[in-house]
Design goal:
The chain is of the alpha/beta class. It has helices spanning 13-24, 40-49, 63-77, 100-128, 149-173, 188-199, 209-226, 230-242, 254-264, 271-282, and strands at 4-7, 28-33, 54-57, 82-85, 131-136, 175-181, 184-185, 227-228, 249-251.
Amino acid sequence: MQRTILITGASTGLGVSLAVQAARAGHKVYASMRNMDKRAGLDAATSAAGVSVTCLQLDVQDDTSIAAAVAKIISAEGRIDVLINNAGAGYVRSTEQALMSEVEWVMDVNFTGVVRCTKAVIPHMRVARSGHVINIGSVGGLVGQPFNEIYCAAKFAVEGYTEALACYVTPHFGINFTVVEPGGIKTEFANSVLKQVGDTGGLLDDEYLPILQAYISGSQARGEAAYQTADEVAEVVMRCISANNPPIRTRTSDWSEELCSLKTESDPDGKRLQAKVMQGFLGL
């Protein structure tokens, strides 16, 4: 079944892999990005794969940009079947050292951007009585990690947002919601986060320094066990798209499953909790 898919943050990494795999599966793909000058990686990947996608400008921090992109797709296709909220940014710094302007930016890109894009597509999916919103979360949305508290807070917010929508929008309007929870991804995302530690003053010579050094050493030591390729994570997303009864949450590797196991063992896909909330709050 061909679907019309909108992907945010498709200029690099996972966004590129998602666009290529979705197009290869026969879907109509709209790959969006904030800065269209950075589309070279997407163009090279789609050309190498022998597939085509439509590239759109979309800034998840700009309501006007989002509305314009959604309007273009609806005008051309009449529907949006799948929204993949992939755009995001990492942030490694202690609360004490973080600037409030940085905190607000991290929350805006990683959480409020998800809300903006979801808000723009839900009316069309509700009319169609079908659709699927897939939010690219993180194991950091289930497990708080050192020096990642601001990033984790944003991803925890994505978890709660996804769960809440799934408990009433799904049963009444047929729109599914899934949060995908990778560990590390072997892209420039991971490298840029470590570089950012130094660029933003995270390596200050203070009491946090030995703790931060231990964290960085641990990140490097986990290596192959923790980090997946963007293509491997994209494969999990594609399985969610094709599933008849998609999960509300899913991890993407054995490592991410093990890390989150204390929180997920009793309800790995979120379906038991969804049913409990639907029954307890709505009598469904």
